[in-house]
Amino acid sequence: MAGELDLIVGPQLIGALFNWGLLGVLSVQAYFYHVYFPRDRLAFKLMVYCVVIAEWVHTGLITSGVLTIYCYNFGNPQSPIEMHNSWFAVPIMCSAVSVITQCFFAWRIYMFSKSRWLAGGVVILSVIQGTFGIAAGIMMEPLHVAEDIAHGAIWPMILVWISGAAAVDIIIATIMTFLLSKSRTGIPLTDALVNRMIQLIVETGMLTATCAIVMLVLAKAPQTKNTLLYEVPSLTITKV
């Protein structure tokens, strides 16, 4: 990889720092959930806590990779572009977390619409993108450096995974917005709450989809493909 050194090592450090910062936000949100929803369903509690634990593991793996690159292998110019544990921390863990959260929203869609077709379609698309992401991670494990991803069958699988995840997020945001809009009652307080829910769903869905698209563009654009700029969104997308 012949990119400028600052565009190789810089994005890794920035991505890791953002990852830690967003983990703090997630931990606070999990604490609020624990305090304010003590009587929530056990299944929901398990899902939330499993996602939080997975995110802590994800951040630990990212931190381990950064320590390996900038501490244990300090001075080795090859280390920043080696795979280390990225094959597991990024595609596999991101795919697993995204499938869990998207399937939860599929359940919400079913509860609002009572349509098994809508909810089932979201689940199927989510599982497909997650399967491609996990398969891509497994295929990345034997690779030595990041630029090897562009060769062979791995890149098409990554393309399906990332674009599929973005598409599912957009579909979920669109469906939930439509369903919530229909639930307006004309009561100002209730409608304000519905509008707030729509805003949060649209913002979250569009943000994750945008991160995925930016990651693809930075990875393949001629001006940035020899850098690691794509690692900034790739290291933070699960926390968004």
TrEMBL record:
InterPro entries, sorted: DUF6534 (IPR045339)
Organism: Fomitopsis schrenkii (Brown rot fungus)
Segments traversing the membrane: 12-34, 46-75, 87-110, 117-138, 158-180, 200-219
Highest taxon, organism lineage: Eukaryota
Annotated protein name in UniProt: DUF6534 domain-containing protein
Every DUF6534 domain range: 165-230
Record PANTHER family: CHROMOSOME 1, WHOLE GENOME SHOTGUN SEQUENCE, DUF6534 DOMAIN-CONTAINING PROTEIN
Keyword terms: Membrane, Transmembrane, Transmembrane helix
A Pfam family reported for this protein in Swiss-Prot or TrEMBL: DUF6534
